[in-house]
Design goal:
single chain, 12 strands, alpha+beta, 242 residues
Length: 242
Amino acid sequence: MAANPLFSSVGTATPPSNQASKTLTGIVPQYQVSLHVEGDESLDSSGKKIFPIVANLPERFNMEFSSNWEPSFARTSAGDLGSALLGGRVNAETINAGLSASGFGNKIRSQTFQVWQDSSPMNFNVEMVFRAVTNSERDIREKHLALLKLAAPSELIGGVLRPPGPNIRNKAIDRSNSRSITLYIGKYLRLEDVVIKSVSSDVVCLFDNNGIPQAMTISIGVESFYACFTAQDIEKMFVVTK
């Protein structure tokens, strides 16, 4: 019986394609996604710093940004506006009743103009594609754990929880005491002081002899630290220097 090609490489660390290998070694930086973390000195099993973590970009990534507008006078009736314009000489209920009796509603179009309230954070959902090149422990497992920890608090003495990511107090006083995360997507954009909102793992069930996956895609939900992202922030985001 012929060997099943799907499982023929179980127990080995299968090299990626030439393109993926070039990407992981930095020869093609425009096809990389990387997370740089200040304030995290975690070491891998070889004694090297885990961060920055660099991975292949998938074929596409998603970014989302929105602005919030609301009609500030939508709950105000035409009678209220009319009464205000007339200095209160006519009761608002009287005006509304008159409009209703005439077959009109108690709203006018000028009440519905919208007023800007705020903007959303800059929001990314980026997949990081990993393959075991020489060592599944370092190439997959240790990176997987390090990325999961970016969304998790740390437990201090007495059970006090230290939040992950940037801290506004430490940003203003002592950045060395705060974990600061910067997202790079190729040479296209850089977003500093991001908040990791989610880490989702898509694991390929092809394991080495130690039971470690040999391929994995990790989806990172990233938002800007400030909930209201500005035009200046957008311009800064597209100036990439490494």
